[in-house]
Design goal:
The protein has 781 residues and is α+β, with helices and mostly antiparallel strands. 48% of the residues lie in helices and 18% in strands.
């Protein structure tokens, strides 16, 4: 540490940086792997999924029939408990809840009486087995209880009003649950009974041909899941003979990481990011270890006499190996302690970056991880130098400095090639991910999302929608306004149906149409383009029997001249009056789905308004005043459509930012190693440089001499990294239906970047050696 300050500092910074990256990745992965796994009955909890064949492809759905949970619990002895869950959070809908003098927006879920027996969400007030004894009971969050009643204790037995779909109802608070943990996929502020949902709000939930809630089962211990899946495959046919769905169950806590399906088969999900960052953590640590090995072996000449003398006086090779390994372990331990301190300081910023709430708890698992990291990193980084240094012949060493062997040079260059390859791979990956994120944010979606706001149609607005919309349209700064059934930018929202038929339809063909109820002017407000026919308009009388399809729907229906085609939908005779150009109602991970608009303003829940760009602040203030005129006491909460769209890609955006940080740190570690090797290279060739300068070599020629070996290694790394990078990023991009092209420009940029980084890193040492006085160079030892 004292004698070789530069080498020590480079090794310390490299190892510490690598360990900080690995530590953060470990914390992130640990949080991901434990997501949804805190429930006491985790190994027995399963979600029922439905599988259907649509357009020749097997499609997996998580929406199930409203009566399925109750029926499976009754008919199947393997089922210990069951609950349906209709989550308004997943639908992007909130309900108005509160008292006469105070009202709040809250996310609700409808569940059965077994919910708290199955899932481990602690109850602060109330008996978990009795909270849903009456179907008009509700259980609220600790935060909601404090906001409305002052404390959780005061909430019990109190009346609570809530409004859904324009219907106001009264309930009794029977329980208060604790703050939900950050690692749960369920999000709710209030829980209501499934009975109230299917009996008073969504009466079609009692029909076997309709789907909506998710169904969760707690299977008895020892249940063979494979046999159970085979048993329930055709369960629905017993209650609905014409049903197209087959059933299977998947582990509840596995859905978070393994949620993607292709043609009915599970093909990954967030687990791919867990695997990716696991590899990145290992690679970054290996790159840091390579720096240690390269610098230790390169500067072996500084310790040759020490090794020779120790061997001459009787020290064994085993003792020397142990000594050098202990030195490496000490260096790593020093770096681990520094890394722990840095992680503790930066953890709040890391949580903000990842959207997590990770805490640094000192426990046996963490201590074991740190010890393992110290031992493994110390051994990997110190083993090669230890065996290399201890292997010198003492006679040769004490007579003078031995020449570097071919194998030593090849090993050192091979390690540098590995570093360059990793850096190129990371640079290519960061460029591709960045370009895809930029493409997502700038892609024309087929509708206008700029300066477009949405807010929920609730309270007094439900009773006087037409009057409210007329006043809203006359508000200064509001260009257009209408209402819509559900949010555009969240896949799965709104209704869907297979129940559409038309002349010439193949009855064996099953097409899942997304259905959106709209009011007059919605298509114009969103700026959706008409391909054929007309939009909904009061000029044509009632449009209650009119439908507008998108291009994707017309294609799968096989209609050549769709306008005027009679349609049978939900036992109603209707007519196609228009076709809109395709636009995206879900993320770019998915293809545009067949969509049908129907004029049904009573079934809409959102107000959409286009406001004048540059006048957002004044216009929003005027809209809030108008909103409170109809809904006194209810806060005006809105969102911009552009923000809703971007929210679909929060995970990818965070992964992109993390990748940029980790790639940058990996390149920094590589630069530290290159800097040290460049310094060593210049040092061992000091006399050669002096002789060349005496013989007339220019400064540029000397710089090129010292640099060309590194550029050869870059060229070799490129041959390895680019094919691997193309394959890896092609696989990642395959998860998007709409994506950027993986063209040669990306690899050219990566190559130029790595060359500039290399030149910048080694130029200081090369130029320093090139401009040195040759007389001093020739006198150097």
């Amino acid at each position: 540490m004292k004698k070789f300050k530069t080498s020590f500092l480079i090794n310390f910074l490299g190892l510490t940086t690598g360990l900080v990256c690995a530590f953060f990745i470990y914390l992130w992965i640990n949080e991901e792997l434990h997501f949804d796994k805190f429930h006491k009955n985790d190994k027995q909890l399963f979600q029922v999924m439905e599988l259907s064949k649509e357009n020749g492809e097997m499609i997996v759905h998580d929406g199930t029939q409203g009566m399925l949970a109750e029926t499976m619990a009754k008919d199947l002895p393997e089922v210990e408990l069951a609950t349906p869950i209709m989550s308004l959070y997943e639908e992007g809908m909130r309900m108005d809840v509160g008292l006469e003098n105070k009202s709040l927006k809250a996310y609700g879920s409808f569940v059965s009486k077994d919910f708290f027996e199955m899932f481990t969400f602690p109850i602060l007030q109330g008996n978990k087995s009795q909270v849903f004894k009456d179907r008009n009971n509700v259980v609220v969050s600790k935060e909601l209880a404090i906001s409305l009643y002052g404390s959780p204790e005061n909430a019990i037995g109190k009346r609570l009003g809530y409004e859904m779909f324009g219907n106001k109802k009264q309930a009794s608070v029977s329980g208060v649950f604790a703050t939900l943990p950050s690692n749960t996929s369920m999000k709710f502020d209030i829980l209501l009974t499934h009975e109230i949902l299917i009996n008073e709000i969504w009466t079609n939930g009692q029909k076997w041909w309709n789907t909506g809630p998710s169904t969760y089962l707690q299977l008895k211990k020892g249940t063979d899941v494979a046999k159970f899946n085979k048993k329930i495959q055709h369960f629905l046919q017993k209650y609905n003979e014409g049903n197209i769905y087959s059933l299977f169950v998947r582990p509840y806590s596995g859905a978070y990481l393994h949620g993607n399906y292709e043609n009915g088969k599970q093909v990954g999900g967030r687990i791919e990011y867990v695997k990716l960052f696991s590899v990145i953590a290992i690679i970054i640590l290996v790159v840091a270890c390579i720096n240690f090995m390269n610098l230790s072996t390169a500067r072996a000449s500084r310790r040759l006499k020490e090794v020779g003398i120790k061997k001459a006086v009787g020290s064994s090779r085993r003792a020397l190996v142990f000594q050098f390994l202990c030195e490496a372990m000490f260096m790593v331990l020093f770096s681990v302690l520094a890394a722990c301190l840095i992680v503790a300081i930066l953890l709040p910023y890391f949580n903000n970056l990842t959207g997590k709430q990770i805490e640094l708890n000192i426990n046996a698992e963490l201590i074991l991880m740190l010890l393992t990291a110290t031992l493994v990193t110390g051994f990997v980084s110190g083993s090669y130098p230890a065996f290399y240094l201890s292997g010198f012949n003492p006679v040769v060493v004490l007579k003078g400095r031995p020449k570097n062997s071919i194998s030593e040079l090849l090993a050192r260059k091979g390690l540098v090639v590995f570093q360059f390859t990793v850096s190129l791979l990371l640079i290519v990956s960061v460029i591709v991910v960045y370009q895809q994120m930029k493409f997502i944010q700038s892609k024309n979606l087929g509708y206008d999302r700029i300066s477009m706001i949405s807010f929920e149609r609730s309270g007094g607005i439900n009773k006087n929608t037409d009057v409210f919309l007329n006043e809203l349209k006359q508000t200064p700064g509001v260009l257009r306004a209408s209402t819509l059934e559900s949010r555009l930018a969240q896949a799965g929202n709104g209704s869907s149906t297979y129940g559409i038929s038309w002349p010439g339809k193949d009855e064996k063909q099953k097409i899942d149409f997304a259905v959106r109820s709209v009011d007059y002017g919605l298509i114009e407000t969103l700026g959706i383009k008409m391909k054929d026919g007309r939009s909904f308009s009061s000029e044509f009388g009632s449009d209650s029997s009119s439908l507008i399809f998108n291009e994707a729907a017309i294609r799968v229906m096989g209609l050549k001249n769709p306008i005027g085609t009679p349609i049978r939908m939900w036992d109603n005779d209707m007519t196609i009056v228009g076709v809109v150009k395709d636009f995206h109602i879900s993320s770019l991970h998915e293809a545009i789905v067949p969509l049908v608009f129907r004029y049904n303003p009573s079934h809409t829940s959102l107000v959409i308004a286009k406001i004048k760009p540059g006048k957002e602040k004044e216009t929003l203030s005027s809209i809030e005043t108008l909103y409170k005129k109809y809904n006194p006491g209810i806060p005006f909460e809105y969102s911009f459509l552009d923000d809703e769209y971007k929210a679909q890609y929060v995970s990818e955006e965070r992964i992109s930012v993390l990748a940029q940080y980790f790639a940058g740190l990996a390149v920094l570690i590589m630069c530290l190693g290159l800097f040290g090797l460049a310094a060593f290279n210049a040092e061992v060739r000091t006399k050669e440089i002096g002789i060349r300068k005496v013989l007339g070599a220019t400064t540029g020629a000397v710089v090129l001499l010292l640099s060309k070996d590194f550029f050869k290694l870059v060229a070799l790394s490129m041959l390895i990294a680019f094919p691997v990078g193309w394959w890896v990023m092609s696989k990642w991009l395959s998860g998007f239906v709409y994506k950027v092209n993986l063209g040669p420009g990306i690899f050219v940029v990566a190559l130029v970047a790595i060359l500039l980084i290399t030149v910048f890193t080694i130029s200081f040492q090369s130029i320093k050696a090139a401009v040195a006085n040759p007389a001093r160079s020739l006198k150097a030892e």
